Structure formats: structure tokens, C-alpha cells
Amino acid sequence: MRKDYRLSWLIVLGFPAVVLCTAIFLGARISEPDRLSYFVAGWGALFLLDGLVTLTRFIRRNPMPKVPTA
Q1: Do 38 and 30 form a contact (C-beta atoms < 8 A)?
Q2: Interval 6-65: pLDDT, tens
Q3: In a domain, 70, yes or no
Q4: Distance CA 70, CA 66 (A)
Q5: Which of 5, 10, 18, 50 is spaced 20 to 30 A from 41 at the CA atom?
Q6: CA 52 to chain centre
Q7: Distance CA 9, CA 25 (A)
Q8: Parent domain of 44
Q9: Total of domains in the chain
């Protein structure tokens, strides 16, 4: 399974960024239970961004075949 799944560098570098942003920018402003929701939302946004980057790479590498015109 490890050979088939490659971890994106966006996830590797983005996870500490999400943690730091949650801790620094939201640390004193929100209550403890809400911190987890912001963290999960940031994590989800990171996965969404990674999926969009992966989809864009796939579409650029595999363009649709041209339809011959008569």
C-alpha cells in the first residue's frame, strides 16, 4: 500500500502551518472546544487544496484526445 500512496509535500508542509496558525492567531480569541473545529476546518481546507493541485496536475498530463473533424 505504501508504494501506491505518495504523501504530498503540500500536506507535509501544510500541517505545521495549520497547527501554528491555529495556535498563534486563534489561541486567545476562541474557547477550547472551538479550537478543534477550526483545526479540523483548516485540515479539511488543506486536503481540498491538495486535491485541487493533484487534479490540475492530472488534467495537464492527460489532456482530452482531439476529436477529428470531418
Answers
A1: yes
A2: 777 888 888 888 888 877 777 677 777 777 888 888 889 999 999 998 899 889 998 888
A3: no
A4: 13
A5: 5
A6: 8
A7: 24
A8: 9-61
A9: 1
